[in-house]
Amino acid sequence: MLKYFLKKTLYGVLVLLGVITIVFFIYNIKPGDPATLSGGQNTSKEIVENIKKEWGLNQPMYVRYFQFLNDVSLLSLYKTNDSESSFFYDENKYGGVTVLNVLSDFKIVLKYPYLKKSYQTNRYVTEIISEKLPSTFVLAISSIIIATFFGILFGSLSAFYPDGFFNKFAVISSIAGMSSPSFFMASIISVIGGYYWSEYIDLPIFPFVLSFLFILIGIIGYKKHKGIKSIFKSILFMGFKGGVIGIGIWIFYLFFESIFDLQAFSFLSSSFSIPGTGLDPSGSLLEINDINGAKEYHWENLILPSITLGLRPLAIVTLLTKKSMIEVLSSDFIRTAKSKGLSTYAIVARHALPNALNPIITAVSGWFASLLAGAVFVEMIFNWDGIGTVLVDALKNDDLPIVMGITFTISIIFVFINIIVDLLYSFIDPRVRLN
Amino acid sequence: MSKYILEIKKFKIQIKGQKSSIVKNLSLNVGHGEIVGLVGESGAGKSISVLSVLNLLNKSNKFIKEGEINFYKNSNYINLIHAEKQILQKIRSENIGMIFQEPMTALNPIVTCGEQVLESIINQKINSQAKTNSFLLVSVVNQLIRTIKIISFSLFKIPYIKTSLYKDAKKETIFWFDKLKIKNSKKIFKSYPHEISGGQKQRVLIAMALSKNPDLLLADEPTTALDSFTQNAIIQDLKFLQKEQNLSILFVSHDLELMAKFTDRIYVMQNGSIVEKGDTNLVFKNPNHPYTRELIASKPPINYKLKELPTRKHFMGFDEEGFLGDINLSIDELNKKLIYPADESIKKANDLGNKKPVLKVQNVSKEYKLKGTKKNFKALNNVSFNLFLNETLGIIGESGCGKTTIGKLILKLIPISSGSIIYNGNDIFKLKRKALNSIRKDIQIVFQDPYSSLNPKQKIFAALMEPLKVHGKLSRWEQREKILTLIDEVGLRPNVLEKFPHELSGGQRQRICIARALVVNPKIIVFDESVSALDVSIQADVLNLLNKIKKQKKLTYIFISHDLSVIRFMCDRIMIMKSGEIIEIGPSEEIFNRPKSTYTNELFSLVLDS
Asked: What is d(CA B3, CA A185) in angstroms, rounded to the nearest whole number?
């Protein structure tokens, strides 16, 4: 187990090295010069040279590469005497503990990864990341929890009743959810949840009354021998039917009201209002109070963006769960479990779901990692103060340290999640051995 | 007390939207403490009938059921077809146990064996405590609480693990494991299904079914997936337990031999209806229905060798008035006509053995690396034998004895560890690629499972063309001609060529596999359990066909099987293997009549006597 963990960590380090190398060379080879961009168009050559020198851009690329590696690694080798060198140990910059002095003017230092300063704002990248990452992390986690919980629920239900209305509904809405772009869903959800339904909303009474009447009819007409499940089913079905018919009649009424005088049916137009969500169309987790300048946590701002961000993974988890549950439910050991006389819930919780979980874990972990980096649209539309916006800004401005820093951080998280997922696999399925 | 514990009356089942029913008018009774057999070939509808007793069919709402399945409980009959879910669950958890066909897949792979049996016991105990409440909401809540209890017992184990209920159930599980002769029962309790052998899995399944002290046991082909030695051991234990517990058993199988040993009464089923029923011994001695007679006759006898297996044509003839029809020939008479005298067979085997061998296997060893350890597993240990022209060499042994490995090595499908296999004077493991290709065509193999050894997305014609394209230098027209004659030779019609494998029956598919082996004019064919997945009557047809083709084309066969009766019927010489070594090799009849080694004696006595 420990051996496996160490091995995986080593692989993770190699993956990080690969990612760092590729990202470093992509951003350094591409045309464009951050120093000129920063100085403006009419700056003299000397100033640009000075900026380059300050940022270390005057060095050849391979030196910069090794310097970056040295900065990023936990154990690194620095010079102590030559303050001009890019490998000079500046205690204010790096911090850390000296492990070993090598020769007279070298030493090995144990420290946190050093990610340089932003070109644009001149703040430490570590500081920016530690400020912005938590809110993105919270957003990603809450949306993945929504997606996993409801995805598994909907998927299992539609696998259980493959001929029913629910299955068709789940499949169609999943496909719609998968194919609608996130900025589109973000705008719609923001407008509906944060604007139209923010305070209160008027609903026509008639469909609800009709739906209630239909439910009553369903209960009266219910025959006892059909079992418990069928009464819930009939309540749901009758309620739905009544509601749909009610809405139909209401729309007809609205249509004909403009043409004819329909005084006698005016009860159809009566409405009642339901309380609103009270949410804002946009907002961040951590907001600064305008009046007294205090930092405040606004957890309610999490609701709309996390629903938006969770929709796509939700659709995928639903479809995946459905597929893998259908496969598991038709396998022989489910039949064995049935022959033991277990109840349906026990069969699902004990035998079906754990066996169907593997592809779901894979999908969820992959999505979680990509939500961390790819929530840009949602963050922008909801004005969520997260890492995605910072990353896009940095890319626009050729702010290399920020781009490299965020990429590095996210790949660390990615590697870590992968290790956890492997452990989860072996925990769920004893046939998967860790070696 | 009523006479029968299970009464099936005029039971019919059909798929929605289809006109013909799968089971037609099935009537069947099982008495108290009686073992009743239901025999039939695949597709006869026997599994469906047994599964619908407990309503265990997958997608059960796609079937229409009619008739009655009455189960005797608390001195009245309950019709299980229209039973409420709760009542059905109660009967499943207390009164009727079931054993399934595939022990490999019938156990949940991610739960330990012990827990799975324990779950059944605890479920029964918790459910028997529960009282049914007539008020709807209370009963729903009760059911939920019970479910949560059961799940938390098995899944989380937290609040109840120390209770006496859990401990008692664990003791009971281990008691049943010991009773079913599962060695190391405490270790098996903690092992997962993939860590134990097929026979042990089946024993765990039986323990699961018996642990609730059922009144009736339904056994759906419980031993079909096991090799015949394990099969016999399990059947004997089951019979012992049946007497001890006074169980009633409904036993479903296609294996007639097993039925004859195990059951008191049998029902013979063909195409969804019962064609014959009665006392087992009477039916086997004096079958009335032609189908039963065919079924019994087509199983190769274990005590002597036949020239040809009886099929329908042997029971046809001209009666006294000159009409073609069924002649009332008893099986014994027919067998007397067809018997192959032992000395003749031995003489033939010896004659063949005097010629030059076609294939020499010399000091062959094969080792597999065991995963995770540095140890090697010796599948074959210094095996040498010769294969002579035009003979059939049978290889017998328990599963894991290395017989399949020999087959694979002869075809060079896997690398060899040491030793040599010499064909035509060349060691096939030292040949260059080009020279090897010409030899590959001379040695062909037919696999066990006709369902998975054909590409499901390739039409039969393409499947047969493929080897010709690789090996032959024939023109397209000649290739076509050749395939057509071959299809005729293996007893199929040319229209199968345009079909996909899933459109054919198991027997037809195996014939296609044989044709595919024959298409390149091989000299040697290896049959690796090639007929063990087929029904008896189809198996008889295929075996007769193989003998016919062998005579026509002057082939040499290696026949690998665990079925002794098939081996005795097919082979001139046999080779008995145990854990990678040859125990005995010689003319078949000589070994069957006078086995020399003690292991062979043991092996035969298991099958012959019981």
From this structure: 69
